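If you are new to this repository, start here. Below is one unmodified record pulled from the training split, so you can see the exact layout before writing a loader.
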Amino acid sequence: MIRAKTIMTENVVTIKEAASLNAAAQLMLSKHVSTLIVMRNNKPVSILTEHDIVRGLINKKAGKVKDSMSKNFLPISPETTYNHIIKKLKDNKIKLFPVIEKDKLAGIITETDIVDATRDFTKFHQIMQEAILAIFGLVTAFFLFFLSPLGQSIRNSLA
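And here is the target side for that same chain:
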C-alpha cells in the first residue's frame, strides 16, 4: 500500500507566524512556491497561501502571517495511505497536506505530488496490463500451434 512518506516532498519552505505578510510574499517569490508552512515554536501550526496573503493585504488590519494564515490545515503522518489522502482531497477540498512525524515537519504533499503519484501508478498498471497480455498471447499461440494439424504432425513424428 502506498504511504504518504513515499510521495511527499521533503524540502519544505516554512515561515514563523510572527513574520510580516510582505516577508512571506518575498519568501514565496524567492523559493518559487505558492504555499508556506507556518511554524510556532518549531512546530507546524498552519499554512499560508498566496490567496491568504492577498486577502491579508487587502484587509488593512492584517499585516502578520498569524492574522492571515489558513484555517484549512490537516496534518497527516508519514504512514497515512494514499487512498486516505485522496479521500480528504475530495471530501474536504484540502489541496496541501503537511506530513508530521513526532511533532516535527517531515514533508509536504501537494496536488502536484498527488498528480505525479497517480501518473506513476497509472503507468505501472499499464505496464502490468501489457505484460499480462503478452504472456496470454504467447500461451494462446502455443496452444493454438500445439492443437493445430502442424503441431499434431510434429508430435506424431516425435512419438
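Two things worth knowing about this chain: The beta strands are 14-16, 35-40, 43-49, 96-101, 104-110. The first strand starts at residue 14 and ends at 16.
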